[in-house]
């Protein structure tokens, strides 16, 4: 049993180009299982809820070289806590949130790495910018100088075929390319956070630089 997590991680890594960063999504996962993932080489953990993450960050404080990634929707009243706990925020999903994060990061002298969460297809069940909204907000995002905006994050709508999934990932990459070609001086677009257990091979094929994998590493979540 103990080696199962290590085996799964090795199996995923085998399929990844070396530059793709594997983020182990540890929501609802025990710190014991996370330590096994650490022993197998994982240094990046992703959590969707601040409160759950806070406890784990404290319990894993003896592991000095971890990077924590926030992947879930952030309520504005938790922005300060998020900035204090996470080095990466993948789920920056509105201009309002970006401005708030920028203001608080400035006050705290922090410079978090940020991805902008975008919805390529309409999906009322998810947060994030639509493509036209995002393109319209870039000038204001460029002014968020405390944020190291590094790229885009996307979550696919449910129920897409593999072909449709691949197309959405490709369109995400093309959007990042388009923004990069606008030559903003502060906004960067080299990262693409996309791909989960069910679709990460397609995301990697389309150019993902960070994949967010939970169940394929840790097994089905029980809750
Ligand atoms: C839960 C979650 C993941 C991981 O999903 P798995 O299916 O367990 O791989 C990735 N990204 C986000 C935003 C999530 O909420």
From TrEMBL:
Statement: the UniProt record of this protein carries the keyword Protein biosynthesis: no
Co-factor requirement: pyridoxal 5'-phosphate
First and last residue of the signal peptide: none
Entry-linked InterPro entries: Ala_racemase_N, PLP-binding_barrel, PyrdxlP_homeostasis
Keywords noted in UniProt: Pyridoxal phosphate
Alanine racemase N-terminal domain mapped to chain residues: 4-221
Residue numbers of N6-(pyridoxal phosphate)lysine PTMs: 27
Pfam family, one: Ala_racemase_N
GO MF entry, a single one: pyridoxal phosphate binding
NCBIfam families assigned to the protein according to its UniProt record, in alphabetical order: YggS family pyridoxal phosphate-dependent enzyme (TIGR00044)
The family this protein is said to belong to: Belongs to the pyridoxal phosphate-binding protein YggS/PROSC family.
Function description: Pyridoxal 5'-phosphate (PLP)-binding protein, which is involved in PLP homeostasis.
Protein name, per record: Pyridoxal phosphate homeostasis protein
Organism expressing this protein natively: Symploca sp. SIO1C4
């Amino acid at each position: 049993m103990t080696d199962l997590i290590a085996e799964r991680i090795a199996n995923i890594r085998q399929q990844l180009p070396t530059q793709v960063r594997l983020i182990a999504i540890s929501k609802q996962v025990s710190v014991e299982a996370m330590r096994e993932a650490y022993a197998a080489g994982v240094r990046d953990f992703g959590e969707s809820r601040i409160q759950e993450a806070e406890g784990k960050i404290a319990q894993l404080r003896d592991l000095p070289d971890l990077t924590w990634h926030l992947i879930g929707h952030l309520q504005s009243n938790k922005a300060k806590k998020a900035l204090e706990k996470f080095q990466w925020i993948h789920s920056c999903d509105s201009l309002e949130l970006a401005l708030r994060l920028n203001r608080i990061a400035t006050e705290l002298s922090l410079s978090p790495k940020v991805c902008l969460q975008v919805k390529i297809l309409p999906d009322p069940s998810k947060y994030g910018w639509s493509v036209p909204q995002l393109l319209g907000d870039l000038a204001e995002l460029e002014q968020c100088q405390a944020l190291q905006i590094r790229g885009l994050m996307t979550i696919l709508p449910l129920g897409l075929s593999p072909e449709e999934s691949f197309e959405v990932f490709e369109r995400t990459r093309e959007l990042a390319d388009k923004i990069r070609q606008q030559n903003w001086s502060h906004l960067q677009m080299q990262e693409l956070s996309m791909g989960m257990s069910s679709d990460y091979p397609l995301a990697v094929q389309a150019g993902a630089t960070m994949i967010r994998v939970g169940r394929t590493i840790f097994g089905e979540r029980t809750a």
